[in-house]
């Protein structure tokens, strides 16, 4: 036995031995399989990358069948229980948990970069009052690159580190400014005496009090939610920042592409859609009727299903626990009863069981955010803030990977064969002639 794959091309009778490494063959090894010298060689075809690895990575590990998620080898349950978002950010970026001194220096470095240039307020002011906050953050992050032209120098580790610090530090500020703009409230500047999550709550919800004191239970709950959303290996938005970043554009511009991908309702926009779905169902008694629609293909059960998890998303389980703590403070979200009934039925109905559809990270998170006072439109922004460090850790790994080049996939061309240009006077006539 050997770690190789033997392939016989029945078109030619030739046999090939392809090495198997890390559970994979290299798609480029297929290129040698050809019919004749004119043949380009065999290409692998995998729309939406259902079974294709685009990179090697040492950051996050997921076992979808067993519902396992590790950050740099540490189980998500342990870091969510014991760590903080900034400590997890350090871990994801550097590969190891920080010492006490390293953490203190890291937290200080993030804290002193929370302010944004005053001009940022001017273009946030330019949006309509009802502009979706995710659209505001998406465009503002791209615009931030104009304030830091040195960010283009991605070959310099110190410059790159500074851009990563800036993005992690400023995302809560941009998110809070977008929210305050949407509710017609003045912007609240960062309070560098508060924690990462506490300061975010301050910039969102401080009214006239001289100093904002975040509720410690909500502050801790938000920080735990940030940990759970920090990274998730090669999801759609991470694939976006890796692909866009492979052209060697600056990380701020590359991250605006990731935010755009996360915005989609099938990805990070799902948490907002879950709440709209629950509000549309209205009452627990209406759940069976809605399930019928889903099974008929007339609706999706938003917050359910996952490309990788074919069992319960470990993050969803943890978030459900956070919900109980938050509702102790905010009062129970009545939509929870509808969500629990949806889950109860879905986990026993063959339609969902046969397709291995379980609650994912987005199913319960929106209920918590709504109870904490966030409007639905802020939910995807609450996903983008913590995922910033995941995106940038993956981007940094891609930039430093000697195997990576500019991402440029092949295609299988099924279009028109070569044909001559048709002068406009002859168009339509020929078709009529052909049809007659
Ligand atoms: C995130 O990739 C990541 O890691 C993402 C994420 C992260 O942390 O970055 O985990 C965050 O994006 C979580 C997913 C949030 N999205 C949603 O909750 C939207 C609802 N879910 C689906 O749209 C869907 O499950 C996806 C997009 C999440 C996964 O889609 P896949 O892997 O392409 O699966 P599929 O669409 O091919 O579905 C397989 C079958 C289909 O039925 P059949 O064609 O076999 O009859 O399952 C059905 C689908 O119709 N199906 C659903 C469903 N999800 C899949 N049917 C009803 N409701 C659903 N939610």
* CATH homologous superfamily label of the largest domain: Citrate Synthase, domain 1
Strand segment tally: 5
CATH fold-level assignment of the largest domain: Citrate Synthase, domain 1
How do the SSEs run, as a string of H and E? EEEEEHHHHHHHHHHHHHHHHHH
Q: Rg from C-alpha positions? A: 25 Å
Widest β-sheet, arrangement of strands: 3-4-5
β-strand amount: 5-15%
- Percentage of residues assigned to helices: 40-55%
**Regarding CATH, which class of the largest domain?**
Mainly Alpha
Assign the CATH architecture of the largest domain.
Orthogonal Bundle
Structural class determined from secondary elements: mainly alpha
Mean pLDDT: 95
Low-confidence parts: none
Number of domains: 2
Number of helices: 18
Overview of this structure, please?
Helix 6 (157-182) packs antiparallel against helix 17 (379-399). This protein folds into 2 domains: 4-45, no CATH class; 64-404, Citrate Synthase, domain 1, CATH 1.10.580.10. The model has no long low-confidence stretch (mean pLDDT 95). It is 49% helix and 5% strand. It has a 3-stranded antiparallel sheet. The protein has a two-stranded antiparallel ribbon with strand order 1-2. The N and C termini lie far apart (64 Å). A hairpin with a 4-residue loop joins strand 3 (60-63) and strand 4. The protein is globular and about 80 Å long. It has 18 helices and 5 strands. By secondary structure, the protein is mainly α. The structure holds s-citryldethia Coenzyme A. Residues 232, 235-236, 266-268, 270, 294, 300-308, 355, 357, 360-362 line the site of s-citryldethia Coenzyme A.
């Amino acid at each position: 036995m050997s770690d190789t794959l033997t392939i016989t091309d029945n078109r030619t009778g030739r046999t090939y031995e392809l090495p198997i490494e890390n559970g994979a063959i290299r798609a480029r090894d297929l290129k040698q399989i050809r019919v004749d010298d004119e043949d380009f060689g065999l290409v692998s075809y995998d729309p939406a990358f259902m079974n294709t690895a685009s990179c090697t990575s040492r950051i996050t590990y997921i076992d979808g069948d067993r519902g396992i998620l590790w950050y740099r080898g540490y189980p998500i349950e342990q870091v969510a229980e014991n760590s903080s978002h900034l400590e997890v950010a350090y871990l994801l970026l550097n590969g190891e948990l920080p010492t006490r001194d390293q953490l203190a220096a890291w937290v200080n470095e993030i804290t002193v970069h929370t302010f944004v240039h005053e001009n940022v307020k001017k273009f946030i002011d330019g949006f309509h009052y009802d502009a979706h906050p995710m659209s505001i953050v998406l465009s503002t992050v791209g615009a931030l690159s104009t304030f830091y032209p040195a960010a283009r120098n991605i070959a310099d580790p110190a410059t790159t580190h500074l851009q990563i610090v800036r993005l992690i530090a400023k995302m809560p500020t941009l998110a809070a400014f977008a929210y305050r703009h949407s509710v017609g409230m003045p912007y609240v500047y960062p309070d560098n005496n508060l924690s990462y999550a506490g300061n975010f709550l301050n910039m969102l919800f401080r009214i006239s009090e001289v100093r904002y004191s975040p509720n410690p239970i909500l502050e801790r709950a938000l920080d735990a939610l940030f940990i759970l959303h920090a990274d998730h290996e090669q999801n759609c938005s991470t694939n976006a920042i890796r692909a866009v970043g492979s052209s060697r554009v600056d990380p701020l511009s590359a991250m605006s592409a990731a935010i755009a991908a996360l915005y989609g309702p099938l990805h990070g926009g799902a948490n907002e859609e879950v709440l709209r779905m629950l509000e549309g169902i209205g009452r627990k008694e209406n759940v069976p009727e809605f399930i019928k629609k889903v099974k008929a293909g007339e609706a999706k059960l938003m917050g359910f299903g996952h490309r990788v998890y074919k069992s319960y998303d470990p993050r969803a389980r943890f978030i459900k626990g956070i919900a109980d703590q938050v509702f102790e403070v905010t009062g129970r979200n009545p939509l929870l009863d509808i969500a629990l009934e949806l889950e109860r039925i879905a986990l026993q109905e063959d339609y969902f069981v046969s397709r291995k559809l379980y609650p994912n990270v987005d199913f319960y998170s929106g209920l918590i955010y709504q109870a904490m006072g966030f409007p639905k439109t802020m939910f995807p922004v609450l996903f983008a803030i913590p995922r910033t460090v995941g995106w940038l850790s993956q981007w940094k790994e891609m930039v430093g990977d000697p195997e990576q080049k500019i991402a440029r996939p092949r295609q299988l061309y099924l279009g028109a064969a070569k044909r001559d240009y048709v002068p406009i006077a002859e168009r339509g006539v020929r078709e009529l002639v052909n049809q007659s």
